[in-house]
Amino acid sequence: MSRIGKQPIPVPGTVQVTLGGSSVLVRGPLGELERKLPDCISIERKGEELLLSADLSRPGARALYGMARARVANMVTGVQTGFSKTLEIVGLGFKAIPEGEKLKLIIGYSHPVEFAIPKGVKIEVDKKQTTLILRGADKDLVGQTAACIRRLREPEPYKGSGIKYQGERIRRKAGKTAAGAGAGGGAKK
Predict the structure, then answer these.
(1) In this structure, are residues 29 and 79 in contact, taking their beta carbons and an 8 Å threshold?
(2) How confident is the model over 135-184, as pLDDT tens digits?
């Protein structure tokens, strides 16, 4: 049985949880989230904790048990404190400009790229316009939005320019001059 799935989920006083069949609605200071659990997973509230249980006779229940518990725990954490991801834009002249519900990215293409910011995600841009901080209550949505923005211009391995996660290490490759200098591939005399 899942070790993660058996763990109780503590519910703080600022968070309200409404259970309705197989759906869970969580309300807190940062908003509300709703998720439908798989049919083989049931949830109940005991005091200030939520407990999940699985019908292990059904196929695939073991695989879904821990995941369902983690997602409900992320919902409780999200509406209370929220989640954030930080992206860095590296490159000469690369920058991000927030424009209402859109984010205008100048990332080395012949035209600026506009990215529609989904509801539930707030994007902050620093003064240099090279660092993006994405915040929201839904961990999945924040992570997916960060991945979509990164995919617009992934970091390239020669100069490292592009959009990367904060703290991400880019594996660098040697350029043509460095690779050819010691290879001995010059012309014969």
Answers:
(1) yes
(2) 999 999 999 999 999 999 999 999 889 999 999 998 899 888 755 555 55
Strands (E), 21-152: 23-28, 31-36, 41-46, 49-54, 83-90, 95-99, 102-106, 113-116, 121-125, 131-136
Residue 153, number of CB atoms within 10 A of its CB: 20
100 φ, ψ to 5°?
Answer: 65, -115
Map out the domains of the chain with their CATH numbers: 3-80 (3.90.930.12), 83-165 (3.90.930.12)
How would DSSP label each residue in 169-180?
PPPP---HHHHH
Strands lying side by side in the sheet with 95-99: 95-99, 102-106, 113-116
